[in-house]
Structure formats: C-alpha cells, structure tokens
Amino acid sequence: MGLKLPAVLLLTAALLAGCAQSPEASSQPGQSGPPPEQSAAVSTSGGDEPAGIVLTDDPASPYPMVMESWSVDMDGDGADELVELRAEKLYSPVESGSDTWEEDTQFPTRFCTLVVTKGEAVWEQPIGRESNEQPITTGGWFFPLGEHRSEAVWTRDRTGNPVLVLWTDTLGNGGMGGIYVYAYAFQNGIVSLPVPHYGMKATLDQEAMTAQVTVPETGYTEVLDLNQWLADYQRDSDEHGFDFTFEPIYEDGALTWPTQPRNIDGIYYAEPAEQGLVLRQFISGSSHADGMGDLVTAITWEDSQAVVLDQYFDWNPKFWELFSSSFD
Asked: How many domains are contained in the chain?
C-alpha cells in the first residue's frame, strides 16, 4: 500500500483538478455545473501506440459513488438541500514503468468530495483542500464510513444552523493515532469551518509537587497536584489488577517522574454535542508513552469562526478506553 501511495496521490490530484468546472459553468459564485456523468469503461487513444497514460476502469468498481447522502435544510430557507459525500477513483500503474494505469480497487481509502445540490445549482468541496486545484498533501482520505474511525455526524452552530462534521483516522501519522476533523456549513455555498487544536505550556514546582498548566491560545490555566495524580495513577493500576507500587523518582535531587506535562497531541477523539463538538487531545509527561490525561475542549461556531464553550484538563487518562471504543 505504501509503495503505491505517491503515484496514486499525484494522479488523483491530476484527476480531481481535471474534474473542476470552469467559472463559466457556474450560475453563482463558488458553484459548478451538475456532476458529470461517469466516463466510459476504458479510455484509449487512437493508433497503434497510446498517447500518454491510459486509464483503465474496473467495470465492477463502485467508484465514484455516493458514500452517504442526506436531505437537510442547511441554510434555513425551509427547503432541503441534497448533501452527498462522494468518493473518487484511484489508479496505479499496471506494472513498474508502465504507461497503462488501472483502477486500484484494493486500496483501503478514498479521497472524497462534499457535494451540495440546491435546485439546479451544485456546489463541490474537496475534503481537506480549498479546491481541486490545490495539491493533495495530507488528509481528505476516508475509509468507508463506520470503519477505522471514519464518521459523519450532524451538529449545529451557535445560531442553530446545521453543520456536517466528518472525521477519519490519520493513518498513523505519528502521535497517538489522531483523527482529521472537518466541519462544513452552507450559506450561499459550502463554508469550511475551523476545527482547532490547542497547545499547552507547563511549569513545575518541585517543592510543592504541583505543575501550572496553561493553554496559550485561550489562557485557560489549572494547577495539577502531582501527588493526587500519582495516587489516582496507583488506584487505576490496582483496579486493573497490576501489582505495581508507584512512587516519585528523583535523580541528583531533581524530580524525574511524575513531572509536569510536556507534550500535547492533536485531536484523537471527537463527539457531537447539541451545539458543536467535544474534542480530546492526549497529554503526556516525561515520555510519549507516559500518558497523563486529556485536554477537553467544547467548541461551536459563530460567524464561521470557532468559539470555545468549555475547556478543562481531564487528568484521569481515558485515551485507551476512548481510542479502543471508537473502533467498535
């Protein structure tokens, strides 16, 4: 899978760019014409030798296809829009160096496009990119919904407008197995909404066995009692049947464990709320495997900007419980 990915990404980018409609095809800014009909099963050139790359489709392939669709009044005008999540085809060379590329139906993920239809007007938004002209770098690919943490859910912004939220696994791009999260509203076109993740700074007071932990972007601050954290850690270990005794570790008079929180990952867990989303970011201590807890942030949107409704540190680590349950 990994060997095919660069070629697949480059060609997919070219294919998607080629599908973009010209401005003349739109009746309103940001629109494209109706989705093109599926091309013929085989694309070939005239003559004995092919001119350029030949793309051969699999007749049994389900792509491009609608992965999911909804009828939702996204703009509040009393009439539902048709909202579709569409998958794209992927191709790879028949063999190394070949100019003939065949559809790759074994690759587990697909790049997707959000399509909103309102009457005769159609809007398209590639997931993870501003437009089809933007090269594919990271994100935008999805497993089938419901598999490997790929989900689509509906929530609302602060004024009550529907928001479609999509997330999918980062495919192991470092950290603790995070997710890409995308949010979209519709007001005279598809509006991409920010889903922020936050940083963390912490300072240790060794004598008091406390750490002051701050989120720089919001200014939220808590004082973590390391003695209490250690007691909770011991209790959690005992409840899981482990026969360990945890005590502070010092080297040359300096506390080395537990220490102040030192690292924070991106988003690894999301769930919809009545308004907006609740997001979790994994926090670790002296090493990345030394999980200390989560930063929990509840957000919504107002005027297309993210608004923090609530934020706190959960020092009772839930990563493995939530991470495992998100695959169920």
From this structure: 2
